[in-house]
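Researcher: Quick test of sequence recovery. C-alpha cells follow.
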C-alpha cells in the first residue's frame, strides 16, 4: 500500500502575514489604482469589474483604501483623490457616499441611485492634467431606503478623517490651510444631523440591511472621533478658539452617547424612534468603536473589555470581525421593509450586513491597539491573511455566519476593503509586525 504523502508544513505566522500583505498590495491595491477616470482615481474592486470602473465611493470604501495608499507612500495619488471628492461637496457640507459619471444620465435612477438629484447635483470636475478632460459627475447623498436614510453620516465623517490622515502623513500646513474650510463645512454638516435627543441621526453608519433605524451607536462614536480630529487640525494651525469649539461639540456628544447607550457592562447597539434603546443581539461593534475612539470612559472600557475578549462569536468561522455576537436574533420590525416599500426587488436579504466585514475588524484592531491587546491584534491579522490566501490572495466584502462554525462569503472576489485594513494594521503597527514586514 502506497504511503500517504506528508501534509504540507504549516507556515509560521510571520510568513503568513508577509504573504497576506504582499497579496493585498500586489493583487488588490496596486491593480485598483488605475487613475482611469481622473488623477487619484482607484476602483474598490481590484480589477474594477464590480461597482463601476469609473465610480468613486467616498463613504467608507475609498477612504479605507486611501489610508492604505498613504501607508504605502502614495501621497500624490491620495491628494488628487481628495481634490476630486472636495469638488463633489454640497453647499450644506455633505459629501456623497457614491459618485458616478454624469456625461449622460446615470443608470439605476429608479432603484439604487434614486437618491440622486439629477440633474440638479451634476458638477463638472476639471483636474487640469494632460489626458484628463473636464467631465460631468453626480454624487448620491440620500439613500435608496429614503425614509430611514442609512449611511447618513458616513461620507462626511470619512472625508474629515481622510483630511486628518493626509496632514498626519505629510505635515503640510499649507495644504491643510487650503482644505480646512471644506473639512469644517463637513463637520458642520455632521452637527446639523443632531436630533432633539442629542444624538446624531443617519441610521447605520456603515450598515444598510438592517439599517439600525435611526441613531446607530457606531455613528455616534465616529462623529465624536471626526469632531475631535477637526479640533486637532485647528490646533495644528494655531486656531485655538475653533479648536475649543470642535472639542466641546465632540465631548457633548460623547457624554450623551454614554448616557443613552451604556448598559452597565457594555454599550447598546442603536436607538429606535419608537422602541427606544435596542440591545437585542448580544455584543455589537459599538463596543469596539467606543473603546477605539476613547468615547467610553476608562472605567467603562475596563468593565466591557473582559466580555469582548471572552466572546468567540466575533470571530465566527475564524474570520474577524462579525458585527454582533448573536446574529440570528434580529426581529422583523428591524428590517427596512417594515418601514417602507423601496419600489424595487433586492437581490440580497434583509440581514446582508450582519457579517464579518473589514470595517468592523478595523474598529476591533484599533480597540485592541488602544488596550495593548497585541496578541489578539496579531492573531486577527493572521486569520484575515489565512482567509485571503485560501482564495488565492483575494478577499470578499462580507463573510456571513452560518449556524455551524463556518462563514459563507458574498460580494466580489478582489474587493479591496480587507486588503486596505490589513495594510493599515500591519504597516501602522511596525513594532508588532517587525518580523513579518517589510520583507527581507
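Model:
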Amino acid at each position: 500500500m502506497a504511503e500517504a504523502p506528508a501534509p504540507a508544513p504549516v507556515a509560521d505566522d510571520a510568513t503568513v502575514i508577509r504573504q497576506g500583505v504582499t497579496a493585498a498590495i500586489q493583487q488588490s491595491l496596486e491593480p485598483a489604482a488605475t487613475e482611469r477616470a481622473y488623477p487619484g482615481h482607484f476602483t474598490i474592486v481590484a480589477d474594477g469589474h464590480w461597482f463601476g470602473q469609473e465610480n468613486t465611493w467616498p463613504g467608507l470604501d475609498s477612504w479605507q483604501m486611501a489610508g492604505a495608499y498613504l501607508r504605502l507612500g502614495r501621497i500624490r495619488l491620495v491628494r488628487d483623490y481628495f481634490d476630486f471628492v472636495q469638488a463633489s461637496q454640497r453647499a450644506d457640507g455633505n459629501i456623497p457616499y457614491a459618485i458616478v459619471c454624469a456625461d449622460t444620465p446615470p443608470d439605476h435612477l429608479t432603484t439604487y441611485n434614486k437618491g440622486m438629484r439629477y440633474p440638479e447635483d451634476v458638477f463638472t470636475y476639471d483636474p487640469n492634467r494632460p489626458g484628463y478632460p473636464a467631465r460631468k459627475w453626480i454624487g448620491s447623498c440620500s439613500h435608496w431606503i429614503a425614509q430611514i436614510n442609512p449611511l447618513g453620516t458616513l461620507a462626511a465623517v470619512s472625508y474629515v478623517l481622510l483630511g486628518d490622515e493626509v496632514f498626519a502623513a505629510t505635515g503640510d500646513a499649507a495644504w491643510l490651510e487650503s482644505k480646512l474650510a471644506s473639512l469644517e463645512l463637513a463637520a458642520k454638516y455632521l452637527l446639523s444631523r443632531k436630533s432633539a435627543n442629542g444624538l446624531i441621526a443617519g441610521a447605520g453608519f456603515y450598515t444598510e440591511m438592517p439599517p439600525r433605524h435611526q441613531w446607530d451607536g457606531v455613528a455616534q462614536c465616529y462623529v465624536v472621533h471626526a469632531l475631535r480630529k477637526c479640533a486637532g487640525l485647528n490646533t495644528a494651525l494655531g486656531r485655538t478658539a475653533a479648536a475649543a469649539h470642535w472639542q466641546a461639540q465632540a465631548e457633548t456628544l460623547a457624554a450623551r452617547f454614554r448616557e443613552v447607550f451604556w448598559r452597565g457592562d457594555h454599550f447598546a447597539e442603536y436607538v429606535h424612534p419608537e422602541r427606544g434603546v435596542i440591545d437585542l443581539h448580544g455584543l455589537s461593534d459599538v463596543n469596539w468603536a467606543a473603546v477605539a475612539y476613547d468615547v467610553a470612559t476608562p472605567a467603562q472600557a475596563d468593565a466591557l473589555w473582559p466580555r469582548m475578549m471572552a466572546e468567540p462569536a466575533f470571530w465566527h468561522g475564524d474570520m474577524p470581525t462579525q458585527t454582533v455576537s448573536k446574529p440570528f436574533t434580529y426581529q422583523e420590525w428591524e428590517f427596512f421593509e417594515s418601514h417602507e416599500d423601496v419600489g424595487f426587488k433586492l437581490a440580497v436579504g434583509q440581514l446582508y450586513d450582519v457579517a464579518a466585514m473589514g470595517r468592523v475588524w478595523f474598529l476591533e484592531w484599533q480597540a485592541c491597539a488602544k488596550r495593548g491587546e497585541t496578541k489578539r491584534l496579531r492573531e486577527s491579522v493572521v486569520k484575515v491573511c489565512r482567509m485571503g490566501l485560501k482564495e488565492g490572495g483575494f478577499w470578499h466584502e462580507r463573510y456571513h455566519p452560518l449556524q455551524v462554525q463556518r462563514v459563507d462569503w458574498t460580494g466580489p472576489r478582489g474587493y479591496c476593503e480587507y486588503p486596505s485594513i490589513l495594510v493599515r494594521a500591519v504597516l501602522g503597527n511596525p513594532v508588532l509586525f517587525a518580523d513579518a514586514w517589510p520583507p527581507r
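Confidence is low (pLDDT under 50) at residues 1-9.
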